[in-house]
């Protein structure tokens, strides 16, 4: 399984990070459509895209508008867009509302609330999801299992132990870490996470590798905080970086 972080920042892009978008090119699966979504079309291995949204905040959906041209040019022919009812309604009602856009692209909408098993199969991989209630409006955690490796993506949540079992034992966890320990008092107030609690989560759930994403965009550097203390908690921690490749 190969994962390509295309955008690893939070709230707005800066000089080193676009906002959230993660591509699994071998599966034609992506998670979130932040400002980095313009990078999708040239990296897809098929003209069909399965795009899973965590929630409808702008830094996770604005890039849906960037798919207009690739779809018009048939670089991408089909986009299956997955999300909960709240997210899909927000995309239809607000992001693609007139007069900004005359109509929404021909996305194939899949409402995850309607799938009781909370899983579906794409190719030979199974995608699981779990709601994360702590963020305003709610977010969604995802896990991809290809039969040999397991990848979990969790963003826009305060670490509260409610999803420990969902991610337990994942080979790779990409988890939001908007705040440093020095600014941790803002984490619970804003329903985001900070460095030490994410490291403790990785240790507690015995994940193999942890990559930090959704970094505060005021931190204008690829590695804004010293990770030496966090690595005493869980040794295999690093930052997710735009345009890197992670092979599991």
Question: Layout of helices and strands, plus pairs?
Answer:
Layout: E1 2-7, E2 21-24, E3 29-31, E4 48-52, H1 58-61, H2 68-72, E5 78-83, H3 85-95, E6 108-111, E7 119-122, E8 125-132, E9 139-145, E10 150-154, H4 164-167, E11 172-176, H5 185-190, H6 195-205, E12 209-213, H7 228-233, E13 237-239, E14 246-247
Parallel strand pairs: 3-4, 4-5, 5-6, 10-11, 11-12, 12-13
Antiparallel strand pairs: 1-2, 1-14, 2-3, 7-8, 8-9, 9-10
Keywords for this structure?
single chain, 248 residues, alpha/beta, Metallo-beta-lactamase, Chain A, 7-stranded mixed β-sheet, 7 helices
Task: Return the structural class.
Answer: alpha/beta
CATH class: Alpha Beta
Please count the helical segments.
7
Taking Cα atoms only, what radius of gyration do you get, to the nearest Å?
17 Å
Low-confidence stretches: none
How would you write the strand order of the largest sheet? 6-5-4-3-2-1-14
Give the tally of structural domains: 1
N- to C-terminal distance = 5 Å
Would you mind describing this structure in some detail?
The protein is of the alpha/beta class and 248 residues long. It is 19% helix and 27% strand. The protein has helices at 58-61, 68-72, 85-95, 164-167, 185-190, 195-205, 228-233, and strands at 2-7, 21-24, 29-31, 48-52, 78-83, 108-111, 119-122, 125-132, 139-145, 150-154, 172-176, 209-213, 237-239, 246-247. The chain has a seven-stranded mixed β-sheet with strand order 6-5-4-3-2-1-14. It has a seven-stranded mixed β-sheet with strand order 7-8-9-10-11-12-13, covered by helices on one side. β5 (78-83), α3 (85-95) and β6 form a beta-alpha-beta unit. It is globular, with a radius of gyration of 17 Å.
